[in-house]
Amino acid sequence: MPSAQVIDVLPSWISATGPTLRSLTMICQTSSLTTDTLLESLAPSMTELDQLFIIGCPKVTHRGIGEIVSTNRNGLTSIGLERLSPAFDMTSFNNICKAHRAFRRLRSITLAVHIETPLQTWTSDVTELLSTAPLEILQIYATTPTSQVVITDDFWKTIVTMHGSRLKRFSIDRMTISLGALHDICSRCSVLEQLFVVTTRHNLDLVTRCFAAARNLRAIHVNFYGEGDESEERSMMNDALHIVRQCPATVTQIGCDTRVWHVRREVRMNDESELYTVPTLARYENPDIPEQFLVARGA
């Protein structure tokens, strides 16, 4: 969270580093210090920016972000707009981006949806916003875990039709998705490698059948919506094994709620001396990437 002192020096610092600045991340965690006015003052010095991530800034709307993308020379390759002001108008932002062809190079986008967002308008605007982008990574989540945020199958179908041949990562968190839409994603996103979804244990068999349709998956993460036994690691490990046993052998990482495992394959021999492989799980251990950063994003 940038302090008042950091905000004070930010314009002069950005002005000095602007010609070489390629990525900017601002994480405010509800701070009101980062505003549209601040971003508008920084925009003229950030024309070479490739990546922009603004997170948890309740005073930032389409106006400030729009100024940054409209002054950008080459077009962003990655953008994350998460937990901004409820007054963020996606229609206005879409119009700004279209006018400047701002997303002509965009490969990755992360969007957070407020519970009060009019979803029909929002999904229509997002569809148009991404229509010209060479998109490879799409991450969408609700700011509050709720069953009230329901994005229609038509939206997911349109996204897959436009970008399925390129999408490598598809993440849908804190909201549910229909089995039909999930199967469409898995079967038509031909190069999909990473998939993050929310479901219930009641639907786990049906969801796993959808996963099996994705022939190039490397990593799967499942969050179980509204269930109270998420801390029981043995239960989650059993769920993870159930999933990987039915998925392509390409899967090397599996996560359930707050746990992540490596998937390994043990070679065994049956009574007829035939070799076969059995998937096993090993806890994810990587000193550079803490486990909690591998799971779907929270508040």
Automatic annotation (TrEMBL):
<protein>
    <recommendedName>
        <fullName>F-box domain-containing protein</fullName>
    </recommendedName>
</protein>
<dbReference type="InterPro" id="IPR032675">
    <property type="entry name" value="LRR_dom_sf"/>
</dbReference>
